[in-house]
Amino acid sequence: MLKAQRQEQILRRLAREGTESVSDTARALGVSEMTIRRDLEELADRNMVERVYGGARLPRNLRDTFSADGIPVPREYSHTEKRHLHIEEKARVARRAASLIEAHDTVFLGAGTTAEQMVDYLPDIPVRIVTNSLSIFRKLEHATAVELYLVGGLYRRQTGCFVGVMAEDAVAPLGIDKAFIGTNGIVGDSLFNADIDEGRLQRLVFDKAHRRYAITDASKIGRRDFYAFYRLIDLTAIICSGQIDADKREELEQQVQLIEA
Predict the structure, then answer these.
(1) Could you tell me the CA-to-CA distances from 56 to 4, 32, 177, 221 in Å, in that order?
(2) What is the distance between the alpha carbons of residues 242 and 191, in angstroms, rounded to a whole number?
(3) What is the pLDDT of residue 203?
(4) Tally of CB atoms within 10 A around 103
(5) DSSP helix/strand/coil, 198
(6) Strands of the 50-52 sheet, one edge to the other
(7) How would you classify residue 163: left for phi > 0, otherwise alpha for psi between -120 and 50, otherwise beta?
(8) Mean pLDDT of all residues in the chain?
(9) Structural domain spans, the chain
């Protein structure tokens, strides 16, 4: 488990339990107490937890907001790190999403690891793929059934994609049948990511697309990142895998179709 992922789990547990001891947290997450102490010190330095004797709790100003506003993502994972998270869930989502692609569709694949996995499940039919992801482009560059377009612009190394004004100008005149875009978090009525430029392009793509699919695993539900880039009510569906709490499922289904993979 990555450090940022572990710290996110600590915040989730504190939001649920209120206060928790170092030993209980270490046992639940399967790591040493020393590791948990280091995590708590880092979170305390960012004012995300308060240390108490033998453990930690959420600061008073965060206790009431976490349930409504979501658990904040401690930091943005790199594209390489994301490849090692929730691998089976992402594969199920990717397979289900790819099954929705039909012959001669113009499809936008966003710059996420779930969209990247969709390449492995694309049907052997003529299709036009547009992407701003360098890794997706490299996986498809020799696919003879695919008419492939790479959206250029400012290269964002953290997620391996192109963003910015040049990318937006390239997307603006396109007609897109179906767009598949990942997310770092789903809270309330919005999809979240970590970067404004990336979010602006994702919003533009969704607005241009006839059918708009958010692709995610259930761990993103209840997570809040920096930038809210799209409203759930404007999506065609969320394609999701993993266990979803009953209350969160009800909240989602009141706003958007939920396709479980």
Answers:
(1) 17, 16, 49, 24
(2) 18
(3) 97
(4) 10
(5) helix
(6) 19-21, 55-57, 50-52
(7) beta
(8) 89
(9) 3-72, 79-260
Does domain 79-260 fall under CATH 3.40.50.1360? My reply is yes
Question: Which one-letter DSSP state was computed for residue 118?
Answer: H
Spatial separation of the C-alpha atoms in residues 49 and 41, rounded to whole Å: 9
Contact 42, 7 (CB under 8 A): yes
Tokens representing 37 are 């102490």
3-72: CATH topology: Arc Repressor Mutant, subunit A (1.10.10)
Q: Residue with structure tokens 């010190």?
A: 41
- Per-residue pLDDT in tens (0 to 9) along the chain, 261 residues: 677 778 878 887 887 777 899 999 999 999 999 999 999 998 888 788 889 999 998 887 666 555 555 666 655 665 666 665 668 999 999 999 999 999 999 999 999 899 999 999 999 999 999 999 999 999 999 999 899 999 999 999 989 999 999 999 999 999 999 999 999 999 999 999 989 999 999 999 999 999 999 999 998 898 888 899 999 999 999 999 988 988 889 999 999 999 999
Run of H or E residues at 193: strand 190-193
d(CA 81, CA 158) in angstroms, rounded, equals 10
Using DSSP's 3-state secondary structure scheme, residue 230 falls into strand
Q: pTM surpassing 0.85?
A: no
Is 107 exposed, middle or buried, given 0-12, 13-18 or 19+ CB atoms closer than 10 A?
buried
Q: Which helix (H) or strand (E) holds 57?
A: strand 55-57
Q: Residue 211 belongs to what H/E stretch?
A: strand 209-217
- Record the tokens describing residue 186, joined without a space: 């789903």
Asked if 227 and 193 count as a contact pair (C-beta separation under 8 A), the reply is yes
The answer to whether 151 and 175 have CB atoms below 8 angstroms apart is: no
Question: 201, exposed or middle or buried, with CB in 10 Å at 0-12, 13-18, 19+?
Answer: buried
